[in-house]
Amino acid sequence: xxxxxxxxxxxxxxxxxxxxxxxxxxxxxxxxxxxxxxxxxxxxxxxxxxxxxxxxxxxxxxxxxxxxxxxxxxxxxxxxxxxxxxxxxxxxxxxxxxxxxxxxxxxxxxxxxxxxxxxxxxxxxxxxxxxxxxxxxxxxxxx
Length: 143
What we know:
Blueprint: E1 6-8, H1 13-23, E2 27-33, E3 59-66, E4 69-74, E5 89-92, H2 96-107, E6 111-117, E7 122-129, E8 135-141
Parallel strand pairs: 1-4, 5-8
Antiparallel strand pairs: 2-3, 3-4, 6-7, 7-8
């Protein structure tokens, strides 16, 4: 079994993809826009896949490889502001330089929730909410 995060950016997914490619060295594994979704056998859009008018170019589905983890993303139905609450995505890296680079890149336009520093469980650890409101925990394990 695999558990993978699926983030809905409600109209800002393309911006998020570009940001994570730069900030976290993410690689796009797959990308489909709403307009590219195949119809059902009757020729109608698949229920739940029809975008609001004017949103045909928005992202229906994207797979981003961040390190060894697949994070999926979408614009959803592009209604309202995206809110990300009650979770963080944890990124464990091998060295402090990489941790600092990722942390500071994610903090650009975002909000530091806990500055990077040594802890009893990690050589360095910090928490930052990025410009989209997604919370990230960046750490270098002690062992």
